[in-house]
Every structure is written in C-alpha cells, then in structure tokens.
Automatic annotation (TrEMBL):
UniProt xrefs under SUPFAM superfamilies: L domain-like
Signal peptide positions on this chain: none
Top-level taxon in the UniProt lineage: Eukaryota
GO terms for biological process, alphabetical: melanocyte differentiation
InterPro entries linked to this entry: LRMDA, LRR_dom_sf
Pfam families membership: LRR_9
Protein name in UniProt: LRMDA protein
Gene label: Lrmda
Amino acid sequence: VVFVVCRSLEGLKTFSYLEELILDNNLLGNDLLLPRLPHLHTLTLNKNQISFQRNTCKILLDHLAEVVPSLQYLSLLGNVACPNELVCKEKDEDDYQRYRYFVLHKLTNLKFLDTRKVTRREREEALVRGAFMKVVKPK
C-alpha cells in the first residue's frame, strides 16, 4: 500500500506491481494521469477536486479503464463528482445512484464503488442506461 500526498504522480511509474493506492486529501483534479498500473485493484481518490465538468470526468474514467484494468475498488467520496447528500444538501440518493450507474458503465470490473458493494442489478442497469446517467447541474 502506498499513501501519497502530492500534486504530481510522475514517480508512480516505477511501482508497476502496485496493488493499492491511496491518494486522499490532495489537490488532484480531472486531469489526473496515472501510469499503467496493471496490478492495481484499489484506488481511493477521496477529498480531491474531481468534478463532472463538461466531459472531463468521462475522460478520467476512460483513462482509469485503460491504465488500471484490474481496478475493483474505487472511492471518490468528498469530490464534487460524487454527489453526496451528506456533503451537499442539493443532492439526493437519486443523484448518487445516477453517478454510480455512470461510473459502473465506464469501469465495468468494479466490485465496490465508494463504500458500497456493486450489486448485480446496478451492473445490469449501468450496461443499459449508464452512458446517459452523468449527473449534471442545470444552468
């Protein structure tokens, strides 16, 4: 397990056999670029600056799908991208569920997202509707 506090992840490429990476409480945003880490199964990005602005979160999720193909556990709690009614009163459980469908549509191997196990029903729903579930705020 590696705990990192940083703004640059350049040095991670030397840890190609890394299995767990905790990047909580940094200033990481949607421009996060990880090196290829084929053995990484756990990634926590809690309390960073990841949001659903434009298509940048889609790009980040596509990037994660490519560079961490073994990813099974992802946590994005405390980021704007993760609509949580405990943190933001404007969000509700439906917002959070749509977020889950969207993330599961992009990262099909996840077994846990945030603190909750991915259910078979969620996985099926993500296949059918996940691409259309991006949570956006109306202007």
